[in-house]
Amino acid sequence: MRITDDRYHRERLRMELALRFLRHEARTQTIRGWTGLSDDRIRKLYRSYLEDARDKLPRHRGKSPHQVAYFTRSVRLQEETLALATPLWMLGVLAATCAPEEPGSLAALARGALLCNAFEAYRMARPGGQITFEHAVFLVSTLSRGEQLRVGWCGCCEGLMVFEPFSLRVTRCPHCTGAARC
Ligand SMILES: [Zn+2]
Question: pLDDT for 118-139, tens place per residue?
């Protein structure tokens, strides 16, 4: 009985997270990677619950984002990246370990729900935000790996910042670098 309850609970969490990802216009492969649901079940879920809203919630095909340079492309995107990285970091979405959780595991489902919370917080703070949910998922993996982009603290104002580890100006955030305050 207990095992059945646990299975039911996990199934419900998987479906809830998949619906939340679908509402954020995530791609099928992304939803599969976090929830462990099959492509067929994801399609059925969309048809059953969200197809009526397909004008507002289109399905996207093709590859997920994979270019880290997107996050540093302009001053606006750098600021938005920080606005998103802040709740990601605060809510503990950025993995402490490199190994991703097994798709559909309780750990992956919990982290996926926090990722949605962080993205929704970013969208509330930046209603006109350009960073899509798929880019947010990509930012999570990029910052968790920490090879091309990392979260750190400015040596001048001590604020959270996102920086390129190979950059020579890693000790100061863009505001402090520009203002030469320290
Ligand atoms: Zn600073």
Answer: 999 999 999 999 999 999 999 9
